[in-house]
Amino acid sequence: MQFKDIVGQRDTIQRLTSIIDSGRVSHAQMLLGEAEVTMPLAWAYLQYLCCENRHDGDSCGECPSCKKIASLMHPDLHFIFPTATTSRVKEKPWSGEFQGEFRDFMLQTQGRGNIDDWYEALGIENKQGLIRELDADSVVSALSLKAYEGGWRMMVVWMAEKMNESFANKLLKTLEEPLPGTLIMLLCESDERLLPTIRSRVQTIKLKTESGETKEESNPEFAEMLVSWLRMLFKLKMKELSAQVDKMAGLNREQLKLFLQYALKVMRDCFLNSAAGVECHLGSGDEKFDAQFPKMITVNNIELIEEALNDAIFAVERNAYAKIALMELSFRMSKALKKR
Identical fold at 3-206 and 220-337? Predict the structure, then answer.
């Protein structure tokens, strides 16, 4: 994978190449954005890092290192990713059991596959993958060995938000005391569930979507749906609320997760508006509502609201029944809003 194969992201690519060209490569980095964008960039970045003949801001694509990275067969490049039990691996799944499948998946999609595509490739569409303690042992083992090629030891953690607590705690120790020549790259769509101590130890680069927008930017459809839902939380008329929840539950799992993440950001923006006067746009089309609602989010309820939304995101990620999760969220949000 070369940078020339990636559409857009010119500013990010320039930043990534300058990190390597300056010789100031951090041992722990995170690309934060859509999976379809983070993996191609990480792939091209690692190829550029190992290239023996870089020129014109890109890898040569011809040297032995480039060819090994391009085929994902470099002996010093390791991958960690979410897994679950399958018809072949019936217990204790971990990344080491699926390296061949993961490599084929990435080569076939050119790094642009998302988590749902990966689950489908493994045949685990109805399960939620995790990155587990066994994966952490693999990280420690792989990064403690001498590099076969005499250069960097590289570990890519794909969909890092899927790591469980055991993995996160072991990874933290590796991040705190890395051996020279170690590079750990976290690829993450949402860093909300990463330990703050991990986020503080990685150099984070936020990416834009393929359309050129950042993941946090407003979505008109989400804005309309969110405002309709918020209005109903004050009335709690069950028939109307149930119809609204049905509409929200009609989103697919990834869209629902993005909607809830969007709602979480809006709530935080509203709190900053009420607490510090930071400008906030709900985009409801009702100027009175846009002006009044942020005042409802205060120091008395922001933590309750964040907790409720994060719990809902967690439930969706684990394939919970969407309507039940959203109904519970609605009741918790309604109760929190009354604590202003």
Answer: no
Which parts of the chain fold into alpha helices (H)? 10-21, 35-50, 64-70, 99-109, 115-122, 133-144, 165-176, 196-199, 220-235, 238-249, 253-276, 287-292, 302-317, 322-337
Question: The whole model's pTM is what?
Answer: 0.63
CATH code matching the domain that covers 220-337, chosen among 1.10.150, 1.20.272, 2.60.98, 3.90.660: 1.20.272
Note every long-range contact of 245-251, with CB atoms under 8 Å and residues 24 or more positions apart, other chains counting. 245/323, 245/326, 245/327, 245/330, 246/323, 248/322, 248/326, 249/322, 249/323, 249/326, 251/322
CATH of domain 3-206: 3.40.50.300
pLDDT in tens, 130-155: 998 889 888 888 887 777 877 888 99
Point out which residues pair with 154 in neighbouring strands.
77, 183
What are the residue boundaries of the structural domains of the chain, listed by start? 3-206, 220-337
Interhelix angle 35-50/10-21, rounded to 10 degrees, is 30
